[in-house]
Structures are given as structure tokens and as C-alpha cells.
Amino acid sequence: MAGLDEALRKKLLSAQKSEITEHIIYRKLTEAIKDEQNRQVLEGISKDELNHHDFWKRHTGEEVRPSRVRIGTYYLISRLLGITFGLRLMERGEGEAQNFYREIAEKVPGAQDVIKDEVRHEKELLNLIDEERLKYAGSMVLGLNDALVELTGALAGFTLALRNTSLIAMTGLITGIAAALSMAASEYLSTKAEETSKSPEKAALYTGGMYIAAVIVLVLPFIILRNAFLSLGISIACALVMILMFTFYISVAKELPFRRRFLEMALISLGVAAFSFGVGMVLRLFFSVEL
Fold first, then answer.
1. Which backbone phi and psi does 164 adopt, to 5 degrees?
2. What is the pLDDT of residue 233?
3. CB-based contact 261:251 (threshold 8 Å)
4. What is the value of pTM for the model shown?
5. Distance (Å, whole) CA 133 – CA 135
6. Taking the alpha carbons of 154, 165, 229, 278 in that order, is the dihedral positive or negative?
7. Which of 19, 60, 96, 244 has the fewest CB atoms in 10 Å of its CB?
8. SS3 of residue 126 by DSSP
9. Are 282 and 156 contacting, i.e. CB atoms less than 8 angstroms apart?
């Protein structure tokens, strides 16, 4: 395109590189998945990204190489953590690109059409992706929330009352496994009673599985270390990290607000742990327990 200044040309080349990179990511995912509906959705987005690349190429008149690092990163994330999460995480980085498109809309005829695709069409297509792990996100949240709230509280109480890491670990595992089985059974019966396409067996498995995973992470410090209070501190830190990671995952995959959900869950878990710690102290004094 004649008359492009150097700064604008570099920005157009950057946009062109981004579009061809994302085209390849979508294409690779299309080749890797088996679900026909999801494949068609990704094929549509992949074609859009290639069209956007070709649009910028007509204005720059240059070839660009895709970012192999970005392709590998988002392909791996999408395969490990789910297509929806990986692609929505990638789309989050397009805010600056859309602002740039608006800036040059007057200088580059047709840029407004690219903006419309980025803002509307691709998001609509992403919403059509049917992914099992997100269908059962509610079951996963239920299992993780209950485990973190109940077990951090229980471990805090056990720490004050027992002060022996082996006893705390044993009691925590028994409590946690029993609670996980109870939660899984409740989720099975609840899902079975609802008019839903979800499988009661899978819902129970996701709930119980998340609960057990949280139990293992929270009890592990008491198995490894001999200082009960240090173990409790590490266990609570692990709980906060799990809350942070899972809340971020759900907020990206389902486009929900992150900060409020994280703070809410963290404050509940810490509040229950602090209350249980106090209960453990009172019960220890009341029963005159010395271990």
C-alpha cells in the first residue's frame, strides 16, 4: 500500500503475523480433535484468520513468518487444559489489536470489517464449542470448593487440637476421603434427579475427583514435615494457589469475573480455617488434651 509510514507499516506487519499465527493454531487443533461440531467451528475461525492475514498482506505487500513459539504454546495449552480455555486465553490478547484496528480504520479501507469479525463472529463461534470438561465445570467447582473450605478448616482444628503431624495427616485423609465419597454420591443423586443432558456418573466422578485431588495436596505437607504449624501454613498457601489457578481457569473458559470470585472463595476458606483453629484451641483446653 503506497504512502504507508514506517510506524504504521510495522504495526500492519505485526497484525499480519498475529493473524497467520492464529490461523495455524486453529488449523492444527482442527486436525487434532475428533468431535465433528468442534472441528467445523475451528475450521470456520481458521478461515477467518487466514482472510484477515491476506487482507493485511495486500496492504503491506510482504510475507511474514508465523510465531512458532506462540503456536506451540497455545496448541499445548489447548490440548492439556481444553480447547475453550486455550483459545479464549489467546483471544484475550487481542484487545490491543482491536484498538489498533480502530486507530487505522480511517487510513486503511476495510479495516472496520476485520474489527467486526474479531469482536463478533469469532466469539460467536467460540461459544458453539461443546467441551465435556466445561459441561461439568459446576461439578468440579462443587468438589474443589467443598474440599478447600471443609478440609482447610478441619486441618486447622486438628493442628491446634492434636499438634502431631502423623495424627493430623491420618485424620485429615480419613475425613477427606469420606467427605469426597459423600459429595460424589450426593452429586450423582442430584444430577440424576435433574432434567439435564449431563451424565450422573461423570458428574459424580468430576466432583469426587476434584475433592480427592485437593485432599492429597492439602494433607501432603503434614505427611512430609514434622512441624504441625508449618505444615498448616503450607497447606493454606497451597489452598490459595489452587483457588487462584482454578478461578483463573474458570474465569477464562467461561468468561466470568476473576477478582470477585477469587476473593470470595479465598476469604471463605481462610475464614473457616481461622474459626476452626479457634474451635480446636477451645476443645483442647476443655478436654485437657496433651499430645
1. -125, 115
2. 93
3. yes
4. 0.74
5. 5
6. positive
7. 96
8. helix
9. no
Which residue, chain included where needed, has cell 481461622?
274
Given a contact cutoff of 8 angstroms between Cβ atoms, the answer to whether 262 and 102 are in contact is no
Spatial distance between the Cα atoms of 240 and 119, rounded to a whole number of angstroms: 34
Number of CB atoms found within 10 A of residue 205's CB: 17
Stretches where the chain sits below pLDDT 50 are 1-2, 291
**Sole residue written with cell 487481542:** 94
Residue type, 33: I
**Cα distance between residue 141 and residue 136, in whole Å:** 9
- 222-231 confidence digits (pLDDT tens): 999 999 999 9
Q: What is the pLDDT of residues 233-290, one digit of tens each?
A: 999 899 889 989 888 988 887 778 888 888 888 888 778 777 776 776 676 666 665 5
In this prediction, residue 205 carries a pLDDT of 92
What's the sign of the alpha-carbon dihedral 99, 113, 72, 30?
positive
Cβ atoms 204, 184 nearer than 8 A: yes
Q: Given the C-alpha cell 476421603, which residue does it identify?
A: 177
Query: How many Cβ atoms from other residues are within 10 Å of residue 103's Cβ?
Result: 13
pLDDT score at 121: 58
Report which of 82, 69, 70, 75 is spatially closest to residue 27, judged by C-alpha positions. Answer: 75
- Give the separation between CA 75 and CA 54, rounded to whole angstroms: 22
- The answer to whether 125 and 44 have CB atoms below 8 angstroms apart is yes
Based on its alpha-carbon atoms, the radius of gyration of the chain, rounded to whole angstroms, reads: 25
Look at residue 86 in the predicted model and tell me its pLDDT.
86
Place of cell 476434584: 210
Predicted confidence at residue 287, as pLDDT, reads 61
Q: Which residue has the cell 458453539?
A: 128
The answer to whether 217 and 151 have CB atoms below 8 angstroms apart is no
Q: What integer pLDDT is reported at residue 222 of this predicted model?
A: 96
Nearest to 235 by CA among 252, 247, 253, 223: 223
CA separation (Å) from 128 to 8, 40, 41, 42, 197? Answer: 35, 10, 7, 10, 16
